[in-house]
Specification:
Rossmann fold; binds nicotinamide-adenine-dinucleotide; alpha/beta; two-stranded antiparallel ribbon; 8 helices
Length: about 270
């Protein structure tokens, strides 16, 4: 039997939820009936996303917070609990990278990567699981990793190490939190269009052409597809799933080492 996704009466919180993947997740949860609390450094974008949530008839709350600081994450979680009395879904989405070969990086940069990608996830998980245990309502935690967490990533090795750590943590938590009826997931996107990706310079025509060749489904992912996946994982339709990492990559990792020939369109080894 198939059913539609209904998250009415549930509450989701999203770190870095003002724009990009975090906003796509927040809007999808709201579209399926959940109220949503967004924590982000960007108040202007956050308030726009909250307005879009409220336009759907749900409650949206914006909390200004910097995920580099664990005390601000704790305050964000406390505010969500104060507003709604419960938290059902945590989307650990805040994250980021700078591109540089490891030997050209410095300790300050390593620690910043670890703080934004890993420590923020640990702090939010710790605070939210305490709430979920007190309310005994169970829940879902989604950690936004990356395909870089599943392969070597020259030029962003520390980011990749953090994203791999997120996947490992997701697995451990699936076991530790199962008796609390908390399910955990790691998402591993390759490329979905977001403001961050535009800034990163990954949206040029040459990039689209390259994607047609290396991604089996020939294109990047979009907001609807990403949001639908998040909503599905949060729903009872995914009640028997936990501890898994899901590649949101159009098949790119499945075809690692191959691309379509520019001349014939046939798959060929990258360096035959
Ligand atoms: N977009 C992709 O294709 C892609 C691929 C792989 C992984 N990811 C991961 O997805 C997540 C979101 O990526 P995105 O492309 O949507 O990024 P983005 O840069 O478009 O958006 C990031 C959001 O986080 C907020 N933010 C930035 N620093 C913050 C901080 N210190 N504290 C709180 N909020 C902060 C920004 O204001 C923005 O709203 C990241 O963890 C990223 O590593 C994205």
């Amino acid at each position: 039997m198939t059913k539609s996704i209904d998250l009415t009466g549930k509450v989701g919180i999203v770190t870095g939820g003002a724009s990009g993947l975090g906003a796509y997740a927040a809007l999808a949860l709201a579209e399926c009936g959940a109220d949503v609390v967004i924590g982000d450094i960007d108040r202007a974008e956050g308030e726009k996303t909250v307005a879009a949530i409220e336009a759907m008839g749900r409650r949206g709350v914006f909390v200004e917070m910097n995920a580099l600081h664990t005390d601000q994450i704790e305050a964000f979680v406390a505010r969500a609990r104060q507003e709604f009395g419960r938290i059902d879904f945590l989307i650990n989405n805040a994250g980021g990278l700078s591109r540089r070969n490891f030997m050209d990086t410095v300790e300050k940069s390593w620690r910043k990567h670890i703080d934004i990608n890993l420590v923020s996830m640990l702090a939010a998980t710790y605070a939210v699981v305490k709430v979920m245990r007190e309310t005994k309502t169970g829940g879902v935690i989604i950690n936004v990793s990356s395909v870089e967490g599943l392969r070597g990533a020259p030029g962003c090795s520390v980011y990749a190490a953090c994203k791999a750590g997120m996947i490992s943590f997701t697995r451990s938590m699936a076991a530790e939190l199962a008796d609390d009826r908390i399910r955990t997931f790691a998402l591993a996107p390759d490329i979905v269009e977001t403001p961050g990706m535009v800034k990163f310079g990954a949206m040029g025509l040459e990039h689209h052409a390259a994607r047609e060749r290396y991604i089996p489904l020939r294109r990047m992912g979009n907001a609807d597809e990403y949001g639908s996946l998040v909503a599905f994982l949060c729903s009872d339709m995914a009640a028997y799933l936990t501890g898994i990492d899901i590649r949101v990559d159009g098949g790119a990792l499945a075809a690692t080492g191959f691309q379509r020939s520019a001349k014939t369109g046939e798959w060929e080894l990258l360096h035959p």
